[in-house]
Amino acid sequence: MLSTGALADPSSRWQTNLSPGVTEVGQEIFDLHMLVVWICVAISVAVFGVLLYVLVKHTKSSGRTPATFHESTVVELLWTIVPALILIAIAIPATNTLIKVYDSSDSDVDILVTGYQWKWKYEYLSKDGGENFSYMSILSTPPEQFQIGGTEEKGVNYLLEVDEPMVIPVNKKIRFLVTSADVLHAWWVPALSVKRDAVPGYINDAWTIPQKEGIYRGQCAELCGKDHGFMPIVVKVVSEKEYEEWVASKLSSSKVDLSEKSLEELMASGEALYNKNCSGCHMVNGEGMNPIFPALKGSSIALGDISAHIEVVVNGKPGTAMTAYGAQLKPDELAAIITYERNAWGNNTGDATQASDIVNFNK
User: Fold this and answer.
1) Whether residue 175 sits in one domain with residue 39
2) Which end of the chain has fewer CB atoms < 10 Å from its terminal CB, N or C?
């Protein structure tokens, strides 16, 4: 843990020790950790050194006569004062660092992080009364790499890659407001020194000031169900100019497309959206995993009243694992998914749900 962690190649340091991170607080935590480690090393060397000396030099066979004493004021003072001074030396920098960790005031960017089974939603909150925007971040590793029987070769970032990373500017204070829409999750990015529980109905805040551009990866750190291991976190730190351009493009693309689409167009986009958002439970072939995740192929929902189908997709189904997608996806995306579910796997209802149908349903 010691020499290996301190002197090893940085790329493998995480296997034996904490990593310094890319933030000022992260470096302070690392320095504090190493201070405590070296204090423990010094104490261990002293204690075990004396113990070894006594065992070797004061054996019974050497004819040593044991000393007889009942107390030593000097020794008692030493073993009280010295540990107290050591604890004070640790407590002062630890307290200062802890105060910094929880000081999320004066942030430059606020992001609401919401955990879902099993993905993350990032909502960028405007500070000047402007428009907010949000998007889902979902595992992008192909199922062929991790499903049982999969033969595809695993990638470099196996199970640590997403379709849309969080994007934040370098050298700016970013505040994360972490919560959950269903069960307990935990948003954890080690390099940014951020780890906060995502609790339904509560908001826990954290912050970071990344000092280096790059891509930093994390994971959900709270057991949250069958796909807990499949909800990674990717944060991309970019220059301020690149960040502003990205925000502008996101605001532009976040506008809802209410134009009427053909059945073929809806099926094409619906298949991609279904595989991305729904296949984890209902499977790519629509056969689900009964009884927990019911089949959509030939189901009464997919073949029945279309308004009931919209109701389940938009508002979810209380008491089941079916979450409300109305808070996660845009109307045009919901319309495409519903259309796909009603016309895939031999369902063939011929129904084409439009984005305007979803908007009208929500009124």
Assistant:
1) no
2) C
